[in-house]
Amino acid sequence: xxxxxxxxxxxxxxxxxxxxxxxxxxxxxxxxxxxxxxxxxxxxxxxxxxxxxxxxxxxxxxxxxxxxxxxxxxxxxxxxxxxxxxxxxxxxxxxxxxxxxxxxxxxxxxxxxxxxxxxxxxxxxxxxxxxxxxxxxxxxxxxxxxxxxxxxxxxxxxxxxxxxxxxxxxxxxxxxxxxxxxxxxxxxxxxxxxxxxxxxxxxxxxxxxxxxxxxxxxxxxxxxxxxxxxxxxxxxxxxxxxxxxxxxxxxxxxxxxxxxxxxxxxxxxxxxxxxxxxxxxxxxxxxxxxxxxxxxxxxxxxxxxxxxxxxxxxxxxxxxxxxxxxxxxxxxxxxxxxxxxxxxxxxxxxxxxxxxxxxxxxxxxxxxxxxxxxxxxxxxxxxxxxxxxxxxxxxxxxxxxxxxxxxxxxxxxxxxxxxxxxxxxxxxxxxxxxxxxxxxxxxxxxxxxxxxxxxxxxxxxxxxxxxxxxxxxxxxxxxxxxxxxxxxxxxxxxxxxxxxxxxxxxx
Length: 507
Ligand code: NAI
Fold this sequence. Notes:
The protein is of the alpha/beta class and 507 residues long.
């Protein structure tokens, strides 16, 4: 093992995060002096980490010798002044600006003039934390994720006055600890908590409009896009006492930017204590820790399916016609649907009702299908009715598209279905992060895939489903909702034609 960039570090605050950072720092070869203002907290952290390493020995992942070495590198500090010889001090205490400022002011009088100071804040301004210091240039953000040893990304955040060399050193040290550093500007939510605004907030908006229930929205996003957890499963896991304040804080810090607008749904549930898994009840009920998923609506039995007519303006029309053929549908080829035909439209961004009216189709027989994502690449098809759709037509469409055994969800009409709205919102927020130069496109993709576990980085997601399609969805959503939250970022508009993940072009 090479000598760590910082052979002796101090860690202030030995709760969930401090412990995790201490673990990877000790494993990288640093001596870690642990300080907490609750005296037992340090002993608890040492005991917990000791157990952790013992478990790794039992599993044969590390040797008993290595475990003993790691343990010997954790040293309790009784007083803050015991951190005097540390080349780096990382702070993971309570998330309060005044308390963090006070701690760093005190540390400045203790550590060497060339020691680096780092804060693990997730929501405060690094610039504000450093503001009162004599040497604000030596303080940077070092934002890890929970649980630290498993979440292998760290945001290195430069405040307004931070010396770039300090960020370099922290990035190098992160790599020595086995983590991937990404560089972020000192902006609300930095990269990961900012990029994460699209998924949950748009899903809440969709649920708030009564387009589909929570479980259906979760199923659609998991099966169509490949998210590991649906947005409501994720809310339940994180718990609303954590995630709702983050939504509010980022919205407020961006001076009420409509893209980040939180939802009354989570405000109410937070107020009512319906917090998520840890409360036994959230968007789902929990029995013995397992979510009680409501059953999917069954596929209707339909004896005779009507013929099908597909709008000439449908997205992926050739693909849809081939799919219908494979499903054994009787396809009409006339200029307009016959009086009995099930009529299909496949809009991008627009709602089914608007399309039926504009194309002069009989709304009673018209349903929409979401074809932003190619059918072969998904595990679920999503159909949307409009307020006039006849029940027999909705049932016929459901039965037809389920014929090959693929899952089908039928939702109520909404501009952009579920996937289009959520994907377009994620891509648009990511584009705006690039526009604001919060980070490079490459670091954005790395931070989101490692920090949020998305199947693709948001820019790659946009390229995968076509930047022009994403733009079309956004333009049309703006028309349907008249809401500035769907206004495409200029960065996205400029790259709509040329591709988003031009990672070699970092400027
Ligand atoms: P925690 O509550 O588990 O641990 C905080 C520890 O700091 C406690 O042991 C407490 O006794 C100690 N402490 C509080 N004030 C202190 C002071 N003035 N001096 C010395 N010790 C003090 O909190 P957690 O979750 O570890 O969070 C710590 C920091 O990390 C916060 O700034 C938080 O925003 C940030 N963070 C938390 C994440 C999480 O998922 N929990 C993720 C990323 C960042």
